[in-house]
Specification:
The protein is of the alpha+beta class. The chain has 5 helices and 21 strands. The longest helix is centred in the N-terminal third of the chain and has 34 residues. It is globular and about 100 Å long.
Length: 424
């Protein structure tokens, strides 16, 4: 008696091919799971999870094929000609293959769009509101930007930081190892490179943790050939930093934010903190530091953003916006803030005629050499009418904030915060 087609062979072959194909396409994404631990552990968890998913899918497929391709019971009907059965089988196989390819293509497009996406989570704090910014931003109001559709929640018991590369003895570091190092505390402003002119993707917090130099030092001496640090994170993020940042006094591996352990959305349990660089360089969920003699193009740099990511001079009105109606003849206190990274702020100037003339604003005390600085300026509109407001800052080197507008890509926005107000 002629034997029917064996669907289990087909499902096994499709399962193996599906596993290999999906791993080849989405390996970097699959590695970005919440298991914590070393890269090897995360990869093992990802492989096991993918294998289970493929096995479940293939089991369902096996049941479907088993019913579709099983030979007809004896005596129920006359057997079909061999050619007809072969055509039916090949037609079903082509349909299955086409559906699989379309499904995989859709999944690929979806996952690739997710991995390139940017999530913004902030409250627009300080934009044209009576509630002025605090020198230290409350943790819940601190802006958040993420490339992930869903951020990782790291198991601190499994988490490890690998320090490797051109070092004397590669080290696998636990959170307790980091806590035993000398801790330093700095007030540092973080700004997203996507913060537009007058934008609010900027916040300031009190950060605490060991110096980056001490963390790298856990792996012994560094080879003199080292020129870069290649850093990686649990969520698959990666970037490179000049090795010279190790010597910057404010650069640290932050473990705390505003007196508490880092929240998950801010990189629990450890993140890189580099004063004066845009947020894209201040990596969250840190998992690896490789000391290297070569650069490695980072996640956002592959999308066209700046490699150096040094913050540009920024200034903004906080309690004044387009459409504001100050009263002519009455004093009105204009408030705002400015930021220039590690260069600091020397002065802030305000104009009511779009920059034809400028008046010097008063600066609040500096809370940190790495933080924003607030200004205030008392203005009495001389008469009703429209005034074109503008603000600019002078950084600590004496360089005036440039007037020429530049969009956020590739190196951050530039230009004066300007708008019209009508005095009544």
């Amino acid at each position: 008696m002629r034997r029917g087609v064996r669907p289990w062979r087909l499902t096994v072959l499709l399962g193996v091919a599906g596993f290999v194909g999906l791993w080849a396409l989405f390996g970097p994404v699959l590695d970005a799971n919440d298991a914590g631990g070393t890269l090897l552990l995360r990869r093992a968890v990802a492989a096991l999870t993918l294998a289970v998913d493929v096995a479940v899918g293939m089991a369902v497929l096996h049941l479907v094929l088993g019913r579709a391709l099983a030979p007809a019971p004896a005596g129920t009907q006359a057997p079909r000609p061999v050619e007809e059965e072969r055509r039916r089988f090949l037609g079903g196989l082509l349909t299955l293959g086409g559906g699989t390819l379309l499904g995989a293509g859709g999944l690929a497009a979806s996952l690739r769009s997710f991995t390139g996406a940017t999530n913004y989570d902030y409250e627009g704090h300080g934009v044209a509101t009576e509630h002025l910014l605090d020198a230290i931003t409350p943790t819940g109001a601190h802006y958040v930007v993420s490339k992930n559709l869903i951020d990782p929640t790291v198991d601190i018991g499994l988490w490890r930081l690998e320090v490797r590369g051109l070092v004397e003895r590669p080290a696998t570091v636990t959170i307790d190892d980091l806590r035993r190092l000398p801790q330093q505390e700095e007030i540092v402003t973080l700004e997203c490179i996507a913060n537009g002119v007058g934008g609010s993707l900027m916040s300031t917090a009190r950060w605490r943790g060991p110096r980056l130099a001490d963390v790298v030092g856990l792996a012994g001496r560094t080879d003199p050939r080292a020129t870069f640090l290649i850093v990686s994170a649990v969520d698959g993020y990666y970037d490179s930093l000049p090795a010279s940042v190790v010597d910057d006094p404010g650069t640290m591996v932050a473990l705390e934010m505003n007196g508490a352990p880092l929240p998950h959305r801010h990189g629990h349990p450890a993140r890189i903190l580099i004063p004066g660089r845009y947020g894209e360089k201040n990596m969250k969920w840190l998992s690896g530091i490789e000391v290297a003699d070569h650069d490695h193009t980072g996640f956002y740099q592959r999308q066209g953003w700046s490699e150096s990511a040094v913050v540009r001079t920024f200034s903004r009105f906080d309690n004044l916006e387009a459409g504001s109606r100050p009263t002519a003849g009455q004093a009105f206190e204009v408030r705002g803030h400015a930021y220039a990274g590690t260069r600091g702020i020397r002065s802030v100037q305000v104009s009511t005629d779009s920059g034809a003339t400028w008046s010097e604003a008063d600066l609040d005390a500096q809370v940190s050499p790495y933080a924003w600085r607030f200004f205030r300026w008392t203005w009495t509109p001389p008469a009703p009418g429209r005034y074109r407001m503008a603000v600019r800052a002078v950084d600590g080197t004496g360089t005036v904030q440039p007037d020429r507008y530049e969009d956020i890509v590739p190196r951050g926005a530039s230009g004066y915060h300007r708008f019209d107000v009508d005095a009544r």
